[in-house]
Design a protein that fits this description.
Order of helices and strands: HHEEEHHHEHEHEEHEHHEHE
Keywords: Cytoplasm, Methyltransferase, Nucleus, Transferase
Strand order of the largest sheet: 6-5-4-7-8-10-9
Protein name: Calmodulin-lysine N-methyltransferase
CATH class: Alpha Beta
Strand content: 15-25%
CATH superfamily: Vaccinia Virus protein VP39
Number of domains: 1
Enzyme class: transferase
GO molecular function, one term: calmodulin-lysine N-methyltransferase activity
GO cellular component, one term: cytoplasm
Number of strands: 10
CATH architecture: 3-Layer(aba) Sandwich
Length: 307
């Protein structure tokens, strides 16, 4: 990650840490700060002592296209102000910031998939889906569950245990967006391409069982994850071996992090080892008409599909 990209990311974190004022508005702040392109109309539709339910409705859809809205329950406990301690530990950005812009754009793709479907072939029957690095809200995965009629099981995962607990609380507080089974679970990919991801033993049946793996802004590099090999192993571990199963992710460039991932994933050695091909769509293809900085705002789409 470049110094410029890191500075932007930390500026967003800082805005959460330093935020003061009416706690009752904090729920909306997580949407407004992520909805930087105004692609969603966000409205509060129900309140209780435990949670606030929000409706997220996509904007700018063709008149001929039916629209899906997303209902999301945000526990009032999430309204607490962020402390510096929330940034300490294994990738705690999903705790400090409830919703990142890229995650909301992932939700927009599934609620409004026509632009992407012109360029990609989704799995013909998508019954099992897992979201990686889902953070505290898992909006991308929940949006897919709301629109995929064949879906039977969705797993929202994160490598931070507090995020997993937050995801469980969101699922309990949210109205049912679908009839499929949805649950939150711990998953952390390893630091090596030769090591399987860390998941609870009770999920041993996940191996090669998912039709689609999805993620938003997950190509970060830290001192622990100095390369993307562990993430590639994780994707291979989860994806079904059937032809057509796919990994879909959105990510801005963020210096060289996106380029490094794509270069490794699409190398001849990796493609032959994991039996897949890699496609990348530019921001103007995925989000036509959207104006912004592809370095840190408007994401590319990475699509890896089994052969």
């Amino acid at each position: 990650m470049s110094a410029k990209s890191a500075k932007h990311r930390w500026r967003l974190l800082q805005s959460y840490v330093l935020k003061r004022g009416d706690v009752s508005n904090t729920d909306l702040n997580c949407f407004s700060s992520a909805n930087i392109f105004g692609l969603f109309e966000v409205s509060r539709i129900e309140e209780s002592s435990a949670a606030v339910t929000w409706r997220l409705s996509p904007r700018f859809l063709p008149a001929s296209q039916s629209s899906h809205s997303l209902l999301l329950g945000v526990p009032r406990s999430f309204s607490r102000l962020c402390n510096l301690v929330d940034l300490v530990g294994f990738d705690r950005t999903g705790v400090a910031v409830l919703l990142w812009p890229c995650e909301l754009l992932l939700a927009y793709i599934f609620l409004n998939p026509l632009n992407v479907l012109h360029h990609l072939e989704f799995p013909s029957t998508c019954q099992r889906v897992v979201e990686l690095a889902a953070g505290s809200l898992g909006v991308g995965g929940i949006a897919m569950a709301a629109t995929c009629s064949t879906l039977k099981y969705l797993a929202l995962t994160d490598g931070n245990e507090e995020c997993v607990q937050n995801l469980e609380d969101v699922l309990k507080a949210s109205p049912r967006n679908c009839t499929s089974k949805v649950e939150a679970a711990f998953l952390r990919w390893s630091e090596s391409i030769d090591r399987e991801p860390h998941i609870p033993e009770s999920y041993g049946d996940w191996h090669h069982s998912f039709d689609m793996v999805i993620a938003a802004d997950c190509f970060f590099a830290t001192q622990v994850f100095s390369s993307h090999g562990g993430l590639l192993n994780c994707i291979d571990y989860l994806l079904s071996t059937c032809s057509g199963s796919a990994f879909l992710a959105l990510a801005p460039r963020r210096g060289t992090t996106l380029e490094s991932f794509v270069d490794l994933a699409s190398s001849l050695e990796i493609c032959e080892r994991f039996h897949w091909k890699v496609c990348i769509l530019q921001p103007n293809v995925v989000f036509p008409g959207l104006v912004g900085d592809s370095e840190k705002e408007i994401p590319h789409l990475v699509y890896i599909q089994r052969q």
